[in-house]
Inverse folding.
């Protein structure tokens, strides 16, 4: 009789299950508090579309600034998984703001309502910036890094399935109840899910990865002279600008009268369908393609799908093209951090990630600020095409750099 494996005595397997669970809960909350639903919330509060776009950009500037200021600090954090577990609570502040205004139901009774949302968003993005940097060091402490790509892709599938279930509930609820009643309920539920994610993440077993963590650093690396950093500096910024345009897609849809509070709820479902498919797809293609090829192919596909969102000014077309775009962006977005672990040492991973994420975040902010101007001067489809072209430039840059590394290794 085959002996049943004791998961509780296998720290790697136990950690893997905890990763899937805590990340699924956390990402579902981000959907409520930080994703497209937040934009819809502000728009339904009566905040103008251009103000919403600029506000999203402000949040990104705050997040990027924190990443930059704390780039060296994160290298000194000793108990990375424990600190990450605390920082998972970052969306709590926006959840409480959304809960408060959905309960009161009357924004006009609070003249400073916008500034309360702004403050809650800024606090959330300060903590989110710290989390986004530190979480890239966490895998070294809790998993076998050879399994990083597989676990990330499988996690995407689980996140997608759970998130899609939450999205269906939101969409169903919006069809039955008022918008702010739904926000009230899901903000309360989101708070419970977030605390649960934090508790689970605090229970990881630190397993380390031998010399990757214990090997002493012989010489402090100057990041600005570090080849992976300065060569990919511009591509990481361009990727961010593209993400900034895509990040306010719901607002763009509102701008052209394609989307409303009901149809925009389908975006959440599209996000998770795209997440599920991208996870399954990545696991399959990663066995046949290297990360360079994955990044190049899927950045090109995103450039094709992005402008289709506004073709025909149809909500159905918008949501379908959004889902395809998200799928492609998510796929090369999984490949990039996986390939980074191939050429960046652990000793500099914190600072490198901080700057890489900061560049992307600053790019997102730039993209958000550019959107109102681009929409006014060149229109919606060219704006989305512009975002796609930036993705292609990013893909070509990563492809060429990764191929150059392989050539150097052969020589």
């Amino acid at each position: 009789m085959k002996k049943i494996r004791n998961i509780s005595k296998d720290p790697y397997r136990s950690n893997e299950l905890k990763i899937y669970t805590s990340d699924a809960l956390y990402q579902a909350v981000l959907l409520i508090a930080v994703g497209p639903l937040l934009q819809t919330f502000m728009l339904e509060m009566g905040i103008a579309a251009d103000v919403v776009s600029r506000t999203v950009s402000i949040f990104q500037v705050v997040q990027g600034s924190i990443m930059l200021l704390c780039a060296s600090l994160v290298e000194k954090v000793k108990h990375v998984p424990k600190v990450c577990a605390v920082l998972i609570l970052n969306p709590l502040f926006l959840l409480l703001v959304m809960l408060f205004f959905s309960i009161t139901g009357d924004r006009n009774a609070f003249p400073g309502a916008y500034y309360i949302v702004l403050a809650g968003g800024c606090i959330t993005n300060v903590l989110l910036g710290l989390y986004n940097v530190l979480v890239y060091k966490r895998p070294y402490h809790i998993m076998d890094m050879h399994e990083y790509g597989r676990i990330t892709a499988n996690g995407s599938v689980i996140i997608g399935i759970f998130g899609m279930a939450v999205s269906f509930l939101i969409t169903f609820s919006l069809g039955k109840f008022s918008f702010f009643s739904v926000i009230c309920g899901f903000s309360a539920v989101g708070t419970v899910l977030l605390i649960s994610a934090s508790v689970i993440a605090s229970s990881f077993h630190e397993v380390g990865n031998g010399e990757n963590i214990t090997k002493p650093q012989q010489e402090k690396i100057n990041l600005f002279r570090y080849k992976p950093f300065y060569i990919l500096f511009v591509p990481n910024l361009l990727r961010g600008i593209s993400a900034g345009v895509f990040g306010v897609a719901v607002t763009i849809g509102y701008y052209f009268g394609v989307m409303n509070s009901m149809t925009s709820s389908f975006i959440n479902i599209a996000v998770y369908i795209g997440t599920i498919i991208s996870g399954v797809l990545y696991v399959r293609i990663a066995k046949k393609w290297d990360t360079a090829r994955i990044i190049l192919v899927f950045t090109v596909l995103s450039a094709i799908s992005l402008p289709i969102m506004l073709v025909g000014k149809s909500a159905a077309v918008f949501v379908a093209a959004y889902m395809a775009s998200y799928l492609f962006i998510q796929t090369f977005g999984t490949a990039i951090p996986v390939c980074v672990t191939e050429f960046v040492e652990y000793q500099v991973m914190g600072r490198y990630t901080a700057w890489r994420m900061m560049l992307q975040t600053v790019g997102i902010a730039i993209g958000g600020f550019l959107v109102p101007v681009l929409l006014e001067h060149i229109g919606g489809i060219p704006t989305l095409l512009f975002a796609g072209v930036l993705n292609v430039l990013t893909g070509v840059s990563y492809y060429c750099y990764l191929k150059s590394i392989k050539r150097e290794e052969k020589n």
Notes: Residues 1-5, 214-218 have pLDDT under 50 and may be disordered. Residues 247 and 388 are 13 Å apart (CA to CA). Residues 346-377 form the longest helix (32 residues). The chain has 18 helices and no strands.
